Amino acid sequence: MLLEQDLIANENTVDSQKNPLTGDFFIRVRYKKMLYYFLSQIVGKKTFKDTLPNDVKDKSFKKNIRNILNTTLLSNHLLKKKEFVNIAGLPASGKSFWAKKFLEKNPEYVYISFDLIMEKFPEYQNDFKLNPKLAFNRWELPARYLGYYLLFKAIYLGYPVLFEHSNSNINHIDLYKSIKSFYYNMSIFFINATPDIVISRLNTRKRFFPKERILERWDLIKRINPLLEKTVHHFYNIEAWINDSNEYK
Fold it and tell me: What is the predicted pLDDT for the residue at 17?
């Protein structure tokens, strides 16, 4: 239960920063119910410890967790602006490139990317040197769990959020409705890069993603997008970049 203990300690820290929601018992209860409901529904695990590989002890993660929490939530993201921006699309569609350009103009946003979180794990980097596929399979789930926690915490604090995610999970409809209920202005930017485009990019990029999951994820996205379009305030389609340079991946 190390992560849960660390998160409680971290919540005590951020709550001391004159958070406008602190002290409102009903908002805090609703936030925590939302947090643990979606963690169990979307990630499929009730605790962070459940996501770790069997040969890894959760105590070894203590320093890593604190660093990720602090650099994501407690550094320069103190602006209260209830804006939620999701950059969506298949893996290798150009989401990270788009996010980089967005953050250059909007540095106040809390940027949540599961890939970026995963790459901050030294254990992932060690595994990646030996076998990128193995590293992905071992550390994708812990990164996802921690990423969703950071998303919920940023929303609770009222920070502007840039969330990088494909939206291939049907639970995101209810997730975005819940975020919207915290009076956030919701925008989705969807990069319309088709499977044939991204599969060719996956063949050349270093970061691993199982190509056999691309078509399945594409089918889910095409079914879920119309529902998301009705859920958020703004939905924008972006044409895929033709240039296959590494910076787009």
Answer: 40
Whether the predicted pLDDT of 22 surpasses 50: no
pLDDT tops 70 at residue 115: yes
For the chain, domains (ranges, CATH) are 2-248 (3.40.50.300)
The letter for the amino acid at 8 is I
Percent residues over pLDDT 70 in the chain: 80
CB 162 within 8 A of CB 102: yes
- Residue 163: pLDDT over 60: yes
User: For position 198, what pLDDT does the model report?
Assistant: 86
